[in-house]
Amino acid sequence: MAETQDDLAGPGTVGERLRAAREEKGLSLDDVARQTRIPIRHLEHIERSEWDAMPAVTYSVGFARSYANAVGLDGAAVGAEIRQELGLSRGVPAGPAAYYEPADPARVPPRWMAITVAVIAVLLVAGYLIWRSAAVGDGSAAEIATTEAPAPPPAGAAQAPRAAQPQAQPAAGPAASGPVVLAATEDVWLRIDEPGQAKALFQGTLKAGQRYEVPAAAQAPRLRTGRANVLQVTVAGRPVPPLGPPERTVSNVSLRGADLLGRAPGTPPQP
Question: Rounded to an integer, what distance in angstroms lies between the CA atom of residue 16 and that of residue 11?
């Protein structure tokens, strides 16, 4: 049966009576701390009536009430006695104390879960930054045309123009100085360098249907890619043979107009 306030007004301090009730039930401070979720250091202060060591009057009363209920005493009576004692000893008016309700362990996430979530968040951010750096590359987005690459003409229709316009010896001159355009029929990664420059003219993925025009000021642009067969290259609108075998890495391929037009139709792709 719970004790009344008159029963609690026996000899000894409130802390001594709480300790005696705990020991009578065979409980340790660890047992009370687990049951009430109150730190052991605060329970020790309560048993020694060291109220000045507690965070505030409200915590002192609330912790003591929870402690009393845990050991079978009347928590409300204990709280009233402590309020009166603190009001007299500290010279502060006794006011209503907030009851300290023990936290539900089921609602408190374990530490390992918080650490795991933090690690996953860091990995996601790092992965996104790495992906963004690889996708953007060093090329300028302004140099990539977003228009669709021209579809190749039907096989039957393509024979007539070629028969009427022999291309055995590409003409040098105005045609060789025309714009060099690379059009992607499939997504392809490529890098275009200018010897003597630390930064690439373009590096990144050319999406299917996108085109890239080599800057006219480039002196000796060189191409590196792993899928030269999906690039349609034209010089001043004239198509040139494939720059490499299917699904093979090619590098140091000249993108000068004269060099590209000098590749005869029967010229094997450059490895």
Answer: 9
**How far lies 80's CA from each of 4, 20, 58, 76, 230, in Å?**
12, 19, 12, 6, 85
Identify whether 37 is part of a domain.
yes
Residue 190 domain flag? yes
The sign of the dihedral angle between the CA atoms of 35, 36, 38, 41 is: negative
Whether the pTM exceeds 0.85: the reply is: no
In terms of domains, do 250 and 190 share one? Answer: yes
| pLDDT tens per residue across span 118-156 | 999 999 999 888 888 776 554 444 444 444 445 555 555
Domain assignment of residue 215, given as a range: 141-150+172-261
Residue 267 lies in a domain: no
Hey, what are 98's tokens? 């907030």
Alpha-carbon 227 to chain mean position: 31
Sorted by sequence, the CB contacts under 8 Å of residue 152 that are 6+ apart come out as: 158, 232
Q: Running DSSP on this structure, what letter comes out for residue 126?
A: H
Flag whether 222 is in a domain: yes
Phi, psi of 148 (to 5 degrees): -70, 140
How many domains does one find in the chain?
2
- What is the spatial distance between Cα 93 and Cα 184, in angstroms, rounded to a whole number? 82
